[in-house]
Design brief:
Layout lengths: L11 H10 L12 H7 E8 L5 E3 H11 L8 E12 L2 E10 L2 E12 L2 E11 L4
Parallel strand pairs: 1-6
Antiparallel strand pairs: 1-2, 3-4, 4-5, 5-6
Length: about 130
């Protein structure tokens, strides 16, 4: 039932770079201030949360700014990364995240620009054990 996801060899360097950036908003080396999160997201960025709710970039930035005033203790492990090219310099990155006891499938659409990598969209879907 599961798809067989294998990243094309020509995308290996892209995959390696994007793996360093995920989980999105949880990598302190890319910054923890609002300006850092603004720099890593496109102006029209939005996300769909694990609840199914859609969130605007402004809302996400507000939540991140508040969260990083007193950073929570986080225990996470990311695995099963896969990268697919969607268009020139636009890539779909998928992976599984175990985060504070909850497992989700994650998707981020990334664009490579002159200034670096920019997230266009992000989604998290809770994995229901059946």
């Amino acid at each position: 039932m599961e798809p067989h996801l294998v990243t094309e060899e020509r995308l290996r360097a892209v995959l390696d770079e994007l793996v360093r950036r995920e989980p999105l908003f949880h990598r302190a080396e890319f910054g923890t201030a609002r300006a850092d999160f603004e720099a890593m997201t496109a102006p029209d960025f939005w996300e769909t949360g694990a609840s199914g709710r859609r969130y605007s970039r402004a809302y996400v930035l507000d939540v991140l700014e508040e969260r990083h005033k007193a950073p929570p203790a986080e225990a996470w492990e990311a695995s099963d990364f896969h990268c697919r090219e969607l268009a020139t310099d636009v890539y779909l990155l998928t992976y599984t995240l175990a985060f504070n006891g909850r497992r989700t499938r994650r998707t981020t659409i990334w664009q490579e620009r002159a200034g670096g990598w920019t997230a266009l969209y992000h989604q998290g879907t809770v994995i229901r054990d059946s």
